Amino acid sequence: MSYFICARDGAGQLVLKRDTREAAEKMAAELWDMGCFQVEIVEKAEKKAA
Predict the structure, then answer these.
(1) Which of 20, 22, 23, 36 could form a disulfide with 31 if both were Cys (CB 3.0 to 4.6 A apart)?
(2) What is the pTM of this model?
(3) SS3 33
(4) Angle at 25 between CA 8 and CA 7, to 5 degrees
């Protein structure tokens, strides 16, 4: 499972990837503290090859 943190700041949009939910939540909180807005975490399931 991968987690993408999407956020906006004055210059544009940021998209960061983390492997755990805890790491994604920590990064989202740090981005919010740095002044980013529209911060959200998107969960993506990894597809395995057949």
Answers:
(1) 36
(2) 0.82
(3) helix
(4) 5
Give the chain's end-to-end CA distance (angstroms, integer): 18
Q: Among 8, 2, 49, which Cα is nearest to 28's?
A: 8
Domain locations in the chain as residue ranges: 2-39
* Predicted local distance difference test score (pLDDT) of residue 1: 86
Q: How far apart are CA 25 and CA 3, in angstroms?
A: 9
DSSP 34: T
Q: Note the pLDDT tens digit of each residue in 1-50.
A: 899 999 999 999 999 999 999 999 999 999 999 999 999 999 998 777 76
How many CB atoms are closer than 10 A to CB 2?
13
